[in-house]
Amino acid sequence: MATFAYVGKTRQGVVKKGQITAGSADQAKEQLSRQQIVVTSLRGKKNWWDIEIGGGGVSDKDVVVFTRQFATMINAGLPLIQCLDILGAQSDNKTLAKTVGEVRLAVEGGSTFTDALKKHPKVFDELYVNMVHAGEIGGLLDTILGRLAKHIEKSMKLKSQVKSAMVYPASILGVAVVVITVLMVWVIPIFAQMFKEMSGGKVGLPALTQFVMDTSNFMQSYIIHMVVAGIALGYGLKRYYKTPKGRLLMDRFFLKLPVVGTLIRKTSVAKFTRTLGTLISSGVPIMEGLIITAKASGNRVVENAILGARQSISEGKTLADPLAKSGVFPAMVTQMVSVGESTGALDNMLGKIADFYDDEVDTAVAALTSLLEPIMMVFLGTVIGFIVIAMYLPIFEMASVVG
Questions:
Q1: Treating both helix axes as pointing N-terminal to C-terminal, what angle do 260-281 and 141-182 enclose, rounded to 10 degrees?
Q2: Which residue from 18, 26, 69, 381 lies 20 to 30 Å from 4 (Cα-Cα)?
Q3: CB < 8 Å & 24+ apart, contacts of 64-73
Q4: Long-range CB contacts (< 8 A, 24+ apart) of 244-253?
Q5: Are strands 37-45 and 15-22 parallel, antiparallel or unpaired?
């Protein structure tokens, strides 16, 4: 049995709130119906002893599967409420199942499907809600849902490409930090004690060895301070990035990086053109579409460029000119956008640009990976080699003296 918090209305129109215990949401609704209460909101309440296993969040893959199945059911002629009931019952993700159940209750209570989705922004973002709204108005909900699923799949592919480019260097750097820390804090002191006993403290160590020893002593004395300082620095940068000025400065810096900046730029272009093209082809007004696209860009410099283009359109100008003046978008992109505007096929042109830049992101990821692999390996080998040589120098010198 579970506890549910409900909000409903009696036949006289009086709003009632309370809690009810039932085996499921449907049973709770049936009980309230027998009490002549029309449910407008129903949500489960978790007791302190309840432990939910799995389903802690909703991934893009979960949303894609939900959207594709939803589109198929709508296309087959099933009523909206029945579709939501089936999808909520068969979902393996508990969070998504709960969300779909709440959406179904809201729709049954008289809310539109769009308004019901708006109540769950963590699962259904602004892009999703606006496209569903356009589908509801135009009577093309199944078509719009199919486009949404395709768009989310493309976005997932783009994210995985960028993540794959970052995972390898990050893992190598992490291993390097761990190995160097272990050597400096635990291994080098053993060598230091050995050299001290062998020389009796009367023979000086080579400069290279002495430098490593001093570094090791420093790390042993201040290792906790260094860890705390690293955490504080990371936290400070994260907080600074959340400020408008900090995010703008750091995003501008990222775009200027030699190889990473190119990858970020191409990813932003692919995301911008794909999202805006999908919105326009689904019937969302371009002014509203640009706001949604700007928020989803992920880079403040790109976001400002898109919002500047929107301002230009509101003044009766074209989209291509302000994008070209921003310096963020390549000339090919702005020229193709200009052709799309003049021919009235902007959504198709944006789709072609997105397809092209998806391939460009693939190339940029491969280039970044091939560049970072040797750099990281050389860095790790150089540092560890430096430490090893520094430790063996005194042994070589002592061997030569004995010889």
A1: 160
A2: 69
A3: 64/149, 64/152, 64/153, 64/156, 66/91, 66/96, 66/100, 67/145, 67/148, 67/149, 67/152, 68/145, 68/146, 68/149, 70/145, 71/141, 71/142, 71/143, 71/145, 71/146, 71/149, 72/142
A4: 244/300, 247/300, 248/300, 248/301, 248/304, 251/299, 251/300, 251/301, 251/302, 252/300, 252/301
A5: unpaired
Helix axes of 300-314 and 244-256: crossing angle, nearest 10 degrees: 100
CA 7 – CA 280 distance, rounded (Å): 38
Please write the tens of the pLDDT for every residue from 127-180. Answer: 888 888 888 877 788 888 888 888 888 888 877 877 777 777 778 788 888 888
- Measured CA to CA, the distance from residue 132 to residue 137 in angstroms comes to 9
- Report whether 272 contacts 293 (CB < 8 A): yes
Report the DSSP beta bridge partners of residue 43. 5
Q: How far is CA 311 from CA 47, 80, 288, 293, 339, in A?
A: 50, 38, 12, 14, 20
Angle value at C-alpha 190, between 184 and 194, nearest 5 degrees: 135
Rounded Cα distance between 69 and 3, Å, is 30
pLDDT at position 236 is: 93
Confidence band for 402, pLDDT divided at 50, 70 and 90? low
Q: Output 46-52 pairs: Cβ under 8 A, ≥24 positions apart.
A: 47/3, 52/94
HSE, side-chain direction, 13 A CA sphere, residue 261: 12
Q: What is the pTM of this model?
A: 0.67
Q: Which two tokens stand for residue 194?
A: 């050995």
Phi, psi for residue 361 in degrees, rounded to 5: -65, -40
pLDDT tens for each residue of 378-396: 888 888 888 888 888 887 7
| Alpha-carbon distances of 84 from 79, 107, 110, 204, 329, rounded to whole Å | 9, 10, 15, 79, 41
CB 184 within 8 A of CB 219: yes
Q: Calculate mean pLDDT across residues 294-316.
A: 86
What is the distance of C-alpha 9 from the center of its chain? 40
